[in-house]
Amino acid sequence: MSKELLQATLKTFRDATEASIELFKVMVPIIIIVKLLQEFDLIQYLAIPLGPLMQLVGLPASMGLVWATGLLVNNYSGLVVYISLAPAAMLNVGQVTVLATMLLIAHALPVECKVAQKCGPSLWFQVLFRCAVALLAGVILHLIYSNFGLLTEPAQVLWNPGTPPATLIEWGIDQLKTLVSIYGIIVALMFMMKLLNKLRITEAINFVLRPILTFMGIGPQAATLTVVGLTLGLSYGSGLIMHEIREGAVPQRDIFSAMTLMGVAHSLIEDPLLMVLIGADFSGIMWGRLIVSLGVMALLVKLVKTMPRPQFMKIFMNAA
Length: 320
Fold this sequence. Notes:
Structural class: mainly alpha
Helix content: over 70%
Low-confidence stretches: none
């Protein structure tokens, strides 16, 4: 191995490690706090105000607990609660699709929105925006499915979540494995990004996606990183963006647009496949989610472009 290649490799590992540490500084405390909320059974209190909102999207009030769990913890935990309630709830495919779409848009908010804040955008705007888009998507899908008599057959649950960790030690080991896997993926993504840049594939990706991403307010510096977040997940896209921010390579408005878009539409491969296993239909969890997310983002970007920088920074970016 040549000296230049060795130096480049070590720099990539160092960059990936620094980005992962920054990510974990945000994630670990929030994961512990959310676990405490679970252990003391406090999530149920968030579900109380969500009950009436469930009626707006054609779901039983009990599904408020499912969404509350997803909002605070993650999709998997929300689905565990759903499966425990499913025998009594007896939802049809349309209702499950509505619930799944809302979960996909707004879930794990304490971790994911704190990560977004670390990149620059306002924490509370990200929380409120994702919840609002989730509700909007739920209402639109409910109106379409109910008014046209679509997806009325009973939903079939094909997923068995297995036994959750019995002890805090087992839970801690699971979380550690997750963090290690995130680090490994970030390392791999950074090597991949360097290879794509070397082969000029990044330029080709940016050229193909430029019309859409420009419409979403995302410039070429953040385009490829946004694609990573959309396809793989917010944490991975955020980790790469954190690195680029330190390099001073991404304008703040691009950061805002990229993180906001990734918030409502990320992990477009793995998460929809999970929702299919509880009976959700792709018309909502993929296409409905994308159409609503891109439509709302287009309106938001149009609004942001008209704002002077001080007003934009005050409303949409992290004041700290």
